[in-house]
Amino acid sequence: MINIKDKEIRLQLIAKYLEAETTVVEEAMLHAYYMENKADEDEQAIVRMICMEHADADLLSDEGAEEFDRIVSENQAKPRKATIRNLWIGGWAAAVTLLLVLNIVTQRKEEPSAAFNTIEIAGCIQQLMTVEDVTSVTASPVKECVLVTAQLADGTTKMYIMNKDSEEGSTSMLAIN
What pLDDT, in 10s, does the model give residues 70-79? Predict the structure, then answer.
């Protein structure tokens, strides 16, 4: 049995709580303790969070909470650092796409939308798929270039800009993230 009155044990449970590793029973013990006892100064911020989260604890069953914990633990595929990195990459990709779209809208002229034909785009996509472990690719012609977005097997997204040298007619791809 856990001695919740021991501050050392409470601090260990709080650390587990902040890492989302506590059980329903441990969280209920913390909540019950703080409902009956005043929190020390170094515990007050977390106590507010625990009490807010468990304000309607009577409405929830332990069975439902355990099922929720089971489902969440099954679906945790990536560590937190990878999630933050993917959000950062996704944010940059969205920002670049937005800038390209805004550039197209503000400078729209009656020129051909791309200097590429379908066969050239397909050839570059084919080469990209042999170099990277790609699961899907989208290509969007933008003026005289093509914006290529590749979804990789590991869940990351890479963006490329396809350009054509007007003198030689050669095609190149530039990775932008």
Answer: 767 766 655 5
Q: Do 30 and 49 reside in the same domain of the chain?
A: yes
Residues near 56 by beta carbon (within 8 Å), at least 6 away in sequence: none
SS3 label, residue 152: strand
Residue range(s) defining the domain that contains residue 148:
80-175
Residue with tokens 């019950």: 32
Q: For every residue of 47-68, which 3-state class applies, written as one string?
A: HHHHHHHCCCHHHCCHHHHHHH
Q: Which residues, including other chains, have CB under 8 Å from residue 94's CB and lie 6 or more apart?
A: none
What count of other Cβ atoms lies within 10 Å of the Cβ of residue 1?
A: 4
Residues 6+ positions from 123 with CB-CB distance below 8 Å? 171
Is residue 47 domain-resident? yes
Kind of pairing between the strands at 134-142 and 157-164:
unpaired
Report field, pTM of the whole predicted structure over 0.70? no
